[in-house]
Every structure is written in structure tokens, then in C-alpha cells.
Amino acid sequence: MKSTKVKAVDYDRSKTKSGILHIGVGNFHRAHEEAYTDALLRIDPSQNNWAITGAMLLPSDEKLYNALKDQDGLYTLTVCGRDGVDEAYEIGSLKEVIWAQKDHGKVIEKIADPAIKIVSMTITEGGYNIDKKTGEFDLSNEAVKKDLANPSAPVTVFGFVAEGLRQRRNAGAGKVSILTCDNLQHNGDTAKKAFTSFIKAQDPELAEWVKDNVTFPNSMVDRITPATLPADVERLNAKNGTDDKAPVYCEDFIQWVVEDNFANGRPKWERVGVEFTDDVAPYENMKLSLLNASHTLLSYPSFLAGYRKVDEAMKDKRIRKFVEDFMNIDITPYVPAPGNINLDEYKQTLVERFGNSSVSDQVARLCFDGLAKFPVYIIPNLTKMVKDGKDLTRVAYLFASYYDYLKYKTDDKGDKYEIAEPWMDAAVEKALASNDPLDFLDLPAFAGADLRNSKPFTDLYLKFVKEIRDKGAMATLETII
Questions:
Q1: What 8-state DSSP symbol labels residue 263?
Q2: What is the largest CA-CA distance in the chain?
Q3: Which whole number is the average pLDDT over 13-42?
Q4: What is the pLDDT of residue 340?
């Protein structure tokens, strides 16, 4: 992968050793935790015991697994500057990759390995199997039930971690931290609930050991990292003079705020810009309420308008104003600025990031998995807005756009599209098939806000549902900005 345009690994990878096992080796992880760790290994040889082993669990991981395996874990990361200047790095912190479909025992062995002090993960917002209605871990999930009954042959992340921890305890391999890097408020608390609920149901004795030997730090992560499409692979290799089967590209902004609650040591990530704190919650609230919620807000109207790239959508003054008004009017009252952060500067940076044409994120990526995103990004503040009697115009329009996006699968230009909703089930299909759009508001994903009983919300929502069908998403948006 040698290239004069790429900043090559300048440390001896043979002297590094994995201290972290990461589950879910997707693009975001490779642009975030791996990038921070690679930067640390470049400047501090004393950190050589903190390289990362990547574990992949799903059948769909095969292509990426083979690509990274063939490249000894090396890949290129292109960081796209808002000023149009890009920088490319060869990332060497991924020491090895293992694939559960090929060798599930090795994943378990790694969790039990005393050299591993941290098990980190990116398994998506919906990956923690939390029931949207009850807020509890769903023990009735079929895959979970199989793992509860067959501890030594796991298929879910919960089964793998439980068996790995069991072997770790039996071998006296020491304490460990489970560090989630997913976009969830109180993500460590969510992970703790999920894993401890599963373990308690499967092995109460192990659950007691976990109480004293496993910590679940909360963290807030941030870096826009688009999916790498086949055309991007060609483009990035041509640009960088490489032949990389698994390149990643991302924006130039990066942030990671982590609760300093590690059971058995951690890397000195603070040397490369990670912020450690006693309380991540204010940072999580700011990021999820402003960045992630705004991404969701702009996604469905932009897609219905025919936009497929986020930067192109943000060049539309109507969409840009819609997003800015949402941030400034609707959300800012509920976001106390954490630490030394200037909220006005933060919001301005967000608008610049969304409009970064070098990154050119896909609108479809933002639309993906809305049923898991709404409860996390939209419902918490919307519940407060309803209670406080706030203007619900923009959020009601978002819900009407999302409803139209799911139900009709046709944009303003008449183009048909497919939707990607992993949580689409019979209840959602039934709500969409109903002649009453209010049935959509009864879905578990929206349950926290009790929207059906808010007349100010339902009046606006029904009005926008009709107008979007009659006039189109953008013509309707023009009436509210």
C-alpha cells in the first residue's frame, strides 16, 4: 500500500500487542477509535500494548474481513478537509481481524485473553436489543433465546461476550471494561443493562462476578463517516496512489469524550485529543440533540426532494434554514453547553460539517434505521417541547416527511426508491397501510412522547401529511421557514 501521498505507518507494528478487542469493524470505528489509537502509537512507544484486534460477527462481514485479512489489517483513511484539502493516512493500529463465522472460538478466546483489557464495540443504536416500549432488554428475542440455551455456541454479541467473560473468570484473567462507541445517550449504561440482563438470565453466578470485575464507561463519539461505495474505492485509490481493498474516508472533525471508568487500565488517548471526564451526559446531550437530531431532521425532506448527497441538500437555502431554525429555536433551550464549549460556534461548525463537499455524505445513510434513531435523537427533546407548549411546527413536519418516505417510496420528482429499515415489522406495516396517519404515531419508536394525545402536534402533523402528498415535501417546507 506504499504511496507518496499517504502518511505511512512509522512505528514497528511487530512490537505492538492487542490490548483492545473491538466488536464491529465498520467504517466509523476505522475512522475513529482506530484513528485515535494509530495517532497514539505514532507518538508514544510505551503504548504498544494497546493495539486493537477487530472481531466481526455477521455473515455480511465476509468481504471486509477478507480485504483486511489480505492487507494484514492495514488500510487507508482519507480525512476530507472543509477547506478542500485532504490528508491520507495508513492506519496500523488494527493488529488482526477475526471473523466469528470462520472461527467463533477465537472471538471467545480473545475476550478471555488477559492481555485484552478493553472490549469496545460499534453494533449500531439498535444493536443492544432494548425493547422500545419497556426500555428493558428483550429476552424473548429468538437469537437471544438460542444463546441463553447454548452458551458455548453463541450467535449474538451478548452470547459471545458472556462466554468470553465466563472463560475469563475461570482462567483468572482479570478485570475488563466494555466500552461502547455507539450513538446512544448514556451508551455505557445501555450496554450495562443489555449485557448484565443477558448474563443474569443465563448464568447468575457470572452476573455476580461481572458486578465486581467489569465496568461500562459512557462515551460520546463524533465523526461523520460515509459508507464507502465501490465508486469511492476507485476514487480514493486513484487519489492516493494506492490499491486498498478497504479504504475509508471521513470529515476532518473528530471528537471523543469518555467517562474515565476503566477496570484494568486504558490507553493514554488524551495525548491525541480524547477528552476524559467524570460525566459524559452533557456532551452526549449536546451531540445527540444537535448533530444527530439535525441529521435526522434534514434526511427525509432532503431525500423526498430528490437530494442524495448531504452537502448538496445543505446548499439548498430552504433546508439550511430549516436545520438552523431547529437547532436555534427548538433545541438550544434544552442543551446546556458542557465544559468550555461555545454552543454558537458548535452549531456553526455543524452546519459547515454538513455542507462539507469533500465528505459528501449520503442522505440515504442518514435515512437508514429511523425507527432506532427517533427514540434516541428526537423523542427525548420532543417530549419536553410538548410538555412546555413549544412550537411543534418543524418536528411535526419531520414526522410527516418520515411517514411519507416510508409509506409511498416515491420522491417529489416521481422517482421510486427502496427503504432500509431493519426494525420494520408487522406493526409498522399495519400502521403504514392504515388510512389514518395518526396510527403511525402509535408505534413503539415514538411511545415516549404520547404524540397522539397532543392536539397541537396532531393538527400540524395531519396538515403536513396532506400537503406533502398534494404539493411535495419542498413546497410544504417553504410554508414553514
A1: S
A2: 66
A3: 98
A4: 85
% residues pLDDT > 90 (the chain): 93
Displacement of CA 358 from its chain's centroid (Å)? 21
Q: How far is CA 117 from CA 98, 112, 215, 263, in A?
A: 18, 10, 11, 8
The C-alpha atoms of residue 32 and residue 14 are separated, in whole angstroms, by 22
Q: Is 441 in a helix, a strand, or coil?
A: helix
Ramachandran bin of 340, using left for φ above 0, alpha for ψ from -120 to 50, beta for the remaining angles = alpha
Provide CB contacts within 8 A for 356, sequence distance 6+.
80, 82, 224, 251, 252, 311
Cβ within 8 Å of residue 182, ≥6 positions away = 121, 122, 123, 124, 125, 127, 128, 221
Question: Taking Cα atoms as reference points, which of 229, 247, 477, 272 lies closest to residue 361?
Answer: 229
Residue whose C-alpha cell is 450467535: 155
In Å, how far are 59, 114, 143, 431 from 119, measured between CA atoms? Answer: 21, 12, 21, 39
Q: Residue 5's CB: how many other CB atoms inside 10 A?
A: 13
* Residue 297 CA from chain centroid, whole number: 16
SS3 424: coil
Q: For residues 38 and 269, what is the distance between their CA atoms, to the nearest angstrom?
A: 10
B/e letters for 85-110, b = 16+ CB within 10 Å, e = fewer, are ebebbbbbbbbbbbbbeeebeebbeb
User: Which three cell numbers mark 155?
Assistant: 450467535
54-86 per-position pLDDT tens digit: 999 999 999 999 999 999 999 999 999 998 899
Question: Using alpha carbons only, what angle is made at residue 306 by residues 305 and 310, rounded to the nearest 5 degrees?
Answer: 90
CA nearest neighbour of 201 among 167, 159, 253: 159
What would the DSSP string read from start to end of 137-170?
B-TT-HHHHHHHH-TTS--SHHHHHHHHHHHHHH
Among 133, 27, 18, smallest CA distance to 76 is for: 27
d(CA 375, CA 377): 6
Q: List, for residues 457-471, the tens digit of each pLDDT value.
A: 999 999 999 999 999
Asked whether residue 171 carries a pLDDT value surpassing 70, the answer given is yes
**In the block, which residue shows the cell 479504504?**
247
Distances (CA, A) of 347 to 324, 352, 431: 8, 9, 35
- As a whole number, the mean pLDDT across the chain is 96
For the segment 245-256, the average pLDDT, to the nearest whole number, is 97
Enumerate helices (H) and strands (E) in the chain, giving the number of each: 21, 13
Q: The whole model's pTM is what?
A: 0.86
pLDDT digits (tens, 9 = 90+) for 313-337: 999 999 999 999 999 999 999 999 9
Residue 1 pLDDT:
67
